[in-house]
Amino acid sequence: MATENSETFLSSIIKKSQLIQSGSPKIYQLKVLTKITEGLKTVTVGTKKVNRLNKTILLLGETETGKSALIDVLVNYAMGVKWEDEVWFKIVEEEMTRQSESQTSDVIMYQIFGFEGKTLPFSLTLVDTPGYGDNRDDINDDIIAERLLDWFTSDGGVHEVHAVGLVLKASVNRLSDRLGYVFDSVASLFGANMEENIFALLTHSDGGPPENALTALADAQIKYAKDEQGEPVYFVFNNCQSAQRTGRYTRNLKNAWEDSEDEMKQFMEVLNVTEAQTLRTTVEVINQRNQLKDCIINIQDKLKFIELKKTQIDQEKALYIKCKEKMKANENYEEDVDERYKDKEPIEGGRCGFLGLYYRGATSCLRCEETCHYKCRMNSTSPDGPRCKMFDGRGHCTVCTNKCERKHHVKEKWIYVPKTRKVRKTYEDIKKKYKEGVKGMEKHSSTLERMQQEMDKLLEQEHEELEKSFQHITTLESIALNIDSIFTFKHLDFLIERMQDEKFAEEVRKLKEMKQRMEGKNLRKALNYAATAGGDKKKQK
Fold first, then answer.
1. pTM score > 0.85 for this model?
2. What is the CA radius of gyration of the chain?
3. 123 within domain boundaries
C-alpha cells in the first residue's frame, strides 16, 4: 500500500488534476501552464524554486517510438508515483498523445518543478522534438533544425543540455533507409562535445535484452555514450504503466512497472552526475548547415543566370561581327536575339504552423532583383524591412549581389526567376549598349574584349560562391559530432562537378576523399530515402 505521506502528497496533486479514466490505475491529466512566446511552446507543471538544480533532457527519435509516453514516465518518476498508489498522471495532453507520435508539429519544452526530494534532487526540463522521418509536407528535418535553433538562441529557451535521449523501439530489428536517415539527422545536429551526453532510451521493451536495437545503432554508426568498458550506455522501458490492471495480466504489468522503475532509477543516477554541455557548438553547427543550404540554393540560382548570360554574350558577339560585316549594305540591319530579364513567379506561402504564428514566404532584394532566402519562416517585421536570417548585425543582406540594406528587401509570396524573350536589335543598339557599358573606364577596350571581361566577372562570382560552400563544409567537418552527415553528402556531387577549374584542384581532391569515405559508410541508402520521401511529398500536393 502507498504510505500516508505519499497518499497526502498525491491527494493534493489529484485535487488539481482532471480525471480522464477510472479504474486501476486512475489516470489524471495534470494541471499545467502553457505559454507560447515567439512561437516557442512551454508547458509547465509546478512552480520553479530559486537556486534549485535543474537537469535538461533533449528527446529525439523517429515517429511512433513512444516519446510522449516516456515523458509521462519521467514526470511520474519525479513525482514519486508507485505501483501501489494505483494512479497515473499525464502531462502530455490526451489529444496531443493520440497525434504526436505520427504528426508532432513543433518543439515543446516541458518544465517539471516542485517535486524535488521525492525521488530526485533536481527538477526536470524535457525538450520534445517532432518525430523525425514524418512524411508530411509541413514537417521536415530542416524545419526541426530551425526550430531547435530558435530554442537554443531565445532568451527563454534552452542553453545547455545534460542528456540527449535517442528514443528507439527496443524491438527494431533492421536498419531501414528511413531509420538510417533519422539517425544521421539526429547526430549531425550536435557538436563533437556532445557524444558522452547522448543515451539510447529503448521503449516498448518485452523485458529481454534489446540486442536488435543495439545492433541497429551499431550499424548506423551513431555516436553515443559508452561506459568504462567501452559498452554502450542504454536504458530500457516498457510503455504499459497506464494499462488497466485486470485479471491474469496484473502480475506481468507489475513486473514490467518495476523493471522500468529500476531502469529509470539508473538513468537518473547517471543524469545526476552528468555535466551539462553548452549548446554553443550545436548552434554553430545548425547555423553552418543553414548557411550551406542557402549558399547551394543561391549558387544554383546564379548558375542559371550565368549560363543564360554566357549564351547572350555569345549571341551578341556573333551579331556584332555580323552587323559590322553587313553595315555597308544595310545600316539598319536587324536580327532577333535573346534578352534576359527577371520575372516574378508566385510560390506557396502565407500563415502556417501552430495558430498561424509563422509566415512562409521569400525574402527578395528589390534593388538587385534577387531572391535572397527562398523559404523564410520568420514571422515578424521591423520598420525598416522584413526580418530574415540572411541579414547580418548591421542589417545588410549576406546573399544579394550588392549586399543591400534591409529596407531594400521585401518578404512576399513570389520569387525572382530569370527568363528570356526575343527582341529585335540592330548594330546601333549593340554599339550604344557597349558604349554605355564601358563609360567611365580610363582606357576603353574593344567591345569584344569588354564582353569577355563580363564573362570573366561572371565566372569569378561563381567561384566565390563555390569557395563559400567549401568553407561551410570544412567548418562542419571540424566542429560536428557526425562529420559524415547525409546533409553534407547530398551536396558533394554538385560541388565536385562545378569545381572543375584548376584553382580548385585541392578542394576537389578533399571533396572526393570525403565522398569516398561517406559512401563506405553506406550513406547512399539513407540519401535515397530522403530523396524518395521528398518526391512523395510533392506527389501529395
1. no
2. 29
3. yes
CATH number, domain with residue 220: 3.40.50.300
Residue 93 lies in a domain: yes
Do the beta carbons of residue 366 and residue 408 sit within 8 Å?
yes
Residue 16 belongs to some domain of the structure:
yes
The C-alpha cell 547572350 sits at: 312
Residue 212 DSSP SS3? helix
User: What is the SS3 assignment for 34?
Assistant: strand
First to last CA, the chain: 56
Distance CA 200, CA 213 (A): 9
Q: Minimal CA–CA distance to 72: which of 63, 64, 81? A: 81
Domain residues for 138?
4-278
Residue 139: band (very low, low, confident or very high) from pLDDT cuts 50, 70, 90: very low
Residue 401 pLDDT > 50, yes or no?
yes
What nine digits make up the cell of 66? 513512444
* Range list of H helices, 80-140: 94-103
- Cell 531509420 belongs to 179
How many domains does the structure of the chain reveal? 1
98 occurs within a structural domain: yes
Beta strands 334-346 and 414-426 are antiparallel
Report d(CA 161, CA 271) in Å as an integer: 11
CA geometry: angle 144, 200, 54, nearest 5 deg: 75
- Look at 446 and 515; give whichever has higher pLDDT: 515
